[in-house]
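Handoff note, outgoing to incoming analyst
You'll be picking up this chain. Sequence as last confirmed:
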Amino acid sequence: MTDFDAVVAGAGISGLTVAWRLHRAGLRVAVLDALGRPGGAIGTARVSGALAESGPNSMLETSPLIGELIADLGLAGERLEADPAAKKRFILRGGRLLPVPMSPPAFFATPLFSVATKLALLREPFIGRWRGPGEESLADFVRRRLGREFLDYAINPFVAGVYAGDPERLSVRAAFPRLAELEQKYGSLIRGAVLGARERRANPEKSKQAAGMISFREGMQTLTDAIVARLAPVETGARVSGFRREADGGFVVSASSAAGPWTASARALVLAMPADATAAVLAPGAPDAAAALRAIEYPPVASVVTLYRRDRVAHPLDGFGFLVPAVERRRILGTIFSSTLFPNRAPAGHVLLTTFVGGLRQPELAREDETAIAANVRAELEALVGASGEPAMVRVTRWPRAIPQYELGHLERVERIAAVEAAQPGLFLCANWRGGISVGDCIKSAYACAERVAAHVAAA
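Most recent structure output, in case you need it:
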């Protein structure tokens, strides 16, 4: 008899969700994670009376599976909808924070874009589909259809906020497949937005633009903590070092930890780890897949949470936050107005801001020591939102490898990696380097992975 039906390596939101679904199906599951605590990039702490998120501040309810997971975990009473003010977002231009236009009249009235760019949008429905060989970068796609200014002041800052990446390097088909699909299906983004409205309304899946934003009363870690509490103890500080196939098709999984070697047999093995950690496990038997995994870049990002007295910040903070285009040459990627987004994020009379530094744009800034990072953010917030004086609290979290980049060639790399699953039945790969990087994307991918694992175990 095997020790487990499945071993899940990696206790971020992907691995935990897979494990939870298998546990709910009655399977025996072991979960291991190399870090000292489960949860991956999701982390919440109460500091000086404020609720500080070190990773994702929220998630978009893009799939009914997200609500299903929350209900299954008994968290429906803990969930929070974002404040309606969060629909308002700002982009920095010429030192001013300008609202992003959310309607056609607002677009033609905004000073964020020039008259030439606004008029150029009228020709978008008449631009042909992409017919070139190979892949197109997101930047080339946007320049071709919408123009350079739209790339600089809409897409570039948006990409910085989502991927901490560079639109010149991202693959439009891999990173933003809906854009590519709209062009191929309707021949135009504008035509697709209009003609596809009925289809989108009938689809239970929501686009990231239409989905509601949610979190929990005590922050995003509520979700991962709830899963961990309902599973058998998650083995933290346990790094999977390898596996071997048995004659019966099962696996013997080996790991190292402070407590000593860990070995167990299982019908299925799920690798829900970052690309480099997955590559290290696969390299002995699948060197090509390992090479493809190592080619996935993760830029460094620092998350800086600052607490200010409300009267020390001039900006009304009446929105989700602001993003910074690269052409503005500032030293941050953007800031979330965390205490506007959800209630009880800051003590009375204070406001909470979460600022991001580094990414592919300025990786060296995220590698500085915490004191330098905090000083940089303080200076930028003073210049951009009028935050004066010493903050009541500063909390810096550095992520040396933050977000996988879906760059040109990514889809081909994923195909090479997926060949390992086909060659080794019972081995499953589930992480945010494929299927989408957001929390919602990870949950959706994890549900699909858990179904495949359960079917394999049942057939074994």
